[in-house]
Structure formats: structure tokens, C-alpha cells
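Hey team,

Filing this mostly as a record. A colleague (T.K.) asked me to run one chain through the structure pipeline before their review meeting, and I want the input and output archived in the tracker in case anyone asks later how it was produced. No errors, nothing strange. Just documentation.

Input sequence:
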Amino acid sequence: MFTGIIESLGKVESLQNVGGDVRLRIQTDLDMSDVHLGDSIATNGICLTVIEWGSNWYAADVSRESLNRTTLGQWRVGQPVNVEKAMLPTTRFGGHIVSGHVDAVGEITLVREDARSIYYEVTAPAEISKYLAEKGSITVDGISLTINHLRGNILSLNLIPHTAERTNISTWKTGSKVNLEVDVLARYIERLLLGDKAADQGQSSDISMAFLAENGFLK
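Output structure:
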């Protein structure tokens, strides 16, 4: 589990094809002294399992599922990535609950200055729009952010100078692809609302924004 508060701006050091999967090595200035084999480190919002590490790097294997569901298949050597170690029970919870399980890939569709912050619009795939809420939380490339406004499946974000300095958002341009993870509570609420139907094989959710409004979940 993570908080979405980025600890380090890492860099892709190598990408190696291994049996159809990818072995990834990340250079980082994280404190690696307390890292152990099998620990989780979120890398641009993707929960990766440490298989090797040193004082300023770690390596992980990436499955086809992760390659298909995230931006990782487009990464290149030298690319900056947001890095966060798994949270401890004693960690100050500064962001929101982040699992590191990417739901979809979104696209940056607008970037402009907004006073001292930077304003972004991100187009999310239509299938995850029902999990998004104005002033709700979303994880973008591993960063815990608040959705300012929603227009259908287009969400707007404002990132302050501190976030810009600590993360890879300087690389976000119009057309950039980003990893999106919705608030984990939204996924479980949807499953609970299915009730007994959740056990049906092949059952797909028929919960829509209209359904939520009709049942008092939306104003």
C-alpha cells in the first residue's frame, strides 16, 4: 500500500526483454538500506516487486498484464519516473490509499499556467469515469491528486510548484500518456452494490451514473 506522496524522482536505467516479459532497473536516490527482497516500490504508480537492489538502484520483473495495462511498455532508458516505497504503519498518511494497481491509461489533453501552479486536463477512458468524483482523489503516475472539476471523462488538476519540483510532471505534455488509479473505495462500493449478483459468473457491472443518482449516491 502507498500514499501517493512521491519520495524520489528516479530514472529508468535499463529495460531488458526476458522471456516475453521485461526486467526493469531504476536508478534512485531513495534510502535503500531498509529494502528487502520482495518489497514493493511504486514506480510511476505501478506496484513493482524488488528482485535485486543496491545503494542507489532496484530491479523488478514486469508481467505482460502490467505492460498491457500501463504506460510501462512505452518507457525508454533515461526517462524520469516517480518513486515511492510502500508505506509503514507509522507513516504519516499525507495522500490517500493507493494500491499501485493501475486501472487505465489516460492522456494529457491540456497544459497551461494558472498563477504559480500548472493546470492540466486529463482524458480518462470512458469505462473508469463512473469511479471519478469532483474533489475526489485520483492517482496519476503515482501522484495523489485531487480532481478539481469533471466534464464527462475529462478531469482537471492543479499542481503546485512543490509537486512540480518533486515529480516528473515537467515531462507531461499534450498527448502524454499517464497511469491512472481510481480511489480504491469506489471499486469496492461498486462490487458491494451488485449484491448477490457479484457471484454470477461473467457478471458485468450495470452500475451507471444514472443508477447511482437514482439510489441517492449522487446529488
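Quick notes for T.K.: The domain at 8-85 is CATH 2.40.30.20 (Elongation Factor Tu (Ef-tu); domain 3). The helical segments are 64-69, 161-166, 184-193, 209-214.
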